[in-house]
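Q: Here's a chain of 229 amino acids. Please give me its 3D structure as tokens.
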Amino acid sequence: MRPIIGITTYVSTASWGVWRDLPTTLVPHDYTAAVTLAGGRAVLLPPDDLDADVLRVLDGLLLAGGPDLAPELYGERPGPHTVTHPERDAGERALLDAALERDLPILGVCRGMQLLVAAHGGTLHQHLPDVLGHERHRVAPGVYHEHEAVFTPGSRIAGLMGDDLTINCFHHQGVADPGKLTVTGRAEDGLPEAVEDPARRFLLGVQWHPEVSRDRRLFGALVAAAARS
């Protein structure tokens, strides 16, 4: 049986066929395709903060990208550029807390990495251009921008990426303080691009979007760790 990987989703307005502007539970297909190609069975998890019982049937958890975290999760007030989805925050935080208790394999992508940081006592920059003085991490709507990253030798992410240092980013927020997590990858401007916890079976967050290229290194590592659950 393939390892079952739960993928967090969000609710947004969507149109298809004869239907227009309906509230829809969704996540880009890139995530499910990446899990499938890596040998896992993708299961979508709509926002739900009533309980985290679904983890009993999951072998791994993928925290997908999406809109900004509520700054209250890391002890700040929202800035003018911050757009949040509180229902998703509540549901994902419940899942993450329970998954951490079980030491379930976890991969966080973009927003998912930021949620990992907030859950471990860290903080975020709410709008990177105000801090870095440039917009190279989100150059235009719907456009990924490639960077050359630097990875910590001996880290999990360095072992997975090998000699390929190219990452593709689309985010306007970033990690200010990683909290209890270890920063193991940075962009050329010093911004954290990967965090992990070496003490756990598999806990990795990346600020870029490996699902777009169906990166079997990262998703394969998650599925392999889930298979050992």
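Q: Can you summarize the key feature?
A: The first strand starts at residue 4 and ends at 8.
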